Amino acid sequence: MFRVILPEGLIDCDRYEYVDNGVELYDEADEFIAFVPYATLQAIVDADREGDETERSIM
């Protein structure tokens, strides 16, 4: 599961896809959840590894 961090809060999703103007988020049934423009995207975090301090990726 991934956690998408936005200025307004978070969205959990099972997978995501980079597209031209942002990121599309999908649930476990592969149904579309949301579109997040790159301008508002702060980070995508692997929720299963969130406590792991050895590796971080911030957009």
What topology does this entry show?
Elements lengths: L1 E5 L2 E5 L1 E5 L2 E5 L5 E6 L5 E4 L13
Antiparallel strand pairs: 1-2, 1-6, 3-4, 4-5
List keywords for this structure.
single chain; 59 residues; mainly beta; three-stranded antiparallel beta sheet; 0% helix; 51% strand
What is this entry, summarized?
The chain is mostly beta strands and 59 residues long. The protein has strands at 2-6, 9-13, 15-19, 22-26, 32-37, 43-46. A 3-stranded antiparallel β-sheet has the order 2-1-6, with no helix packed on it. Strands 3-4-5 form a 3-stranded antiparallel β-sheet, with no helix packed on it.
Can you describe this structure?
The chain is an all-beta fold and 59 residues long. The protein has one domain (2-49). The protein is 0% helix and 51% strand. The protein is built from no helices and six strands. The chain has strands at residues 2-6, 9-13, 15-19, 22-26, 32-37, 43-46. The strands form two sheets. It has a three-stranded antiparallel sheet with strand order 2-1-6, with no helix packed on it. It is globular and about 25 Å long. The mean pLDDT is 88.
Give the number of domains. Answer: 1
End-to-end CA span: 18 Å
Number of strands: 6
**What is the overall shape?**
globular
The radius of gyration is 11 Å
Order of helices and strands: EEEEEE
